[in-house]
Structure formats: structure tokens, C-alpha cells
Amino acid sequence: MHTAKVTAKGQITLPAEIRKVMGLKSGSRVMFFQDADGDFVMRPRIGSIADLRGCFAGLTDVPKTDEETNELLHRHARELDEATKSKARKLSDGEAA
């Protein structure tokens, strides 16, 4: 397990192994989300809508409706999310960190 200390300015240094696994380099940005259980999750910032350019490349069945387009974009976002997830296990209630 990895830990980081919060400085007086609210900053932390992510351990090198975490940065490596997540593909973070100097200047990388991360986002924080609160899941349904109230836990916070950190993910590398994907970027803007412009970063989705090319995600339809090579498709033989191009989406024809907004719903099909949304489903394709959601699937692409889920794949990106899965690719960035840590393999760390979640601590059970009462387990020491």
C-alpha cells in the first residue's frame, strides 16, 4: 500500500510507482470523482472533446442516431477508464490502512 502526506498547502506527492502505473508525467493533470459509496477515485485527466477525435476511425458500422453515438462514446470512455484503473484492492470496513 502507498501513502502520501498532505502539506500545509494541501499538496501531495504521488509515489513514483503510482505515477508509473497511471502513466503520469510532470505536468499531468488528474481528476477526482466521488463514487456511489462516497469513496474518492483519482483518474488521469483524459482531456477535452477534441481528444475523442479519431475514436470512430475504422468503424464499419458508423452510428446513425444520437443514442448510438452516445453509446459508442460511453463505451470508449469506459475502456479508457478501465485502462487507467489501479489494481489495488479496496480496504474492507475496519481494516487498517
Short précis:
The protein is 27% helix and 10% strand.
List keywords for this structure.
27% helix; 97 residues
Question: If helices are DSSP runs of H or I spanning 4 or more residues, what is the number of helices?
Answer: 2
Q: Numbering strands along the chain, what is their spatial order in the largest sheet?
A: 1-2
Summarize model confidence as the mean pLDDT: 79
Largest sheet: 2 strands, antiparallel
Low confidence ranges: none
Q: How far apart lie the N and C ends?
A: 8 Å
Shape: elongated
Give the radius of gyration. 17 Å
What does this entry look like structurally?
There is one protein chain. 27% of the residues lie in helices and 10% in strands. It has one domain. The longest helix has 19 residues. With 97 residues, the chain is α+β, with helices and mostly antiparallel strands. A hairpin with a 5-residue loop joins strand 1 and strand 2. The chain has a two-stranded antiparallel ribbon. The radius of gyration is 17 Å and the shape is elongated. 0% of the residues are buried. The mean pLDDT is 79.
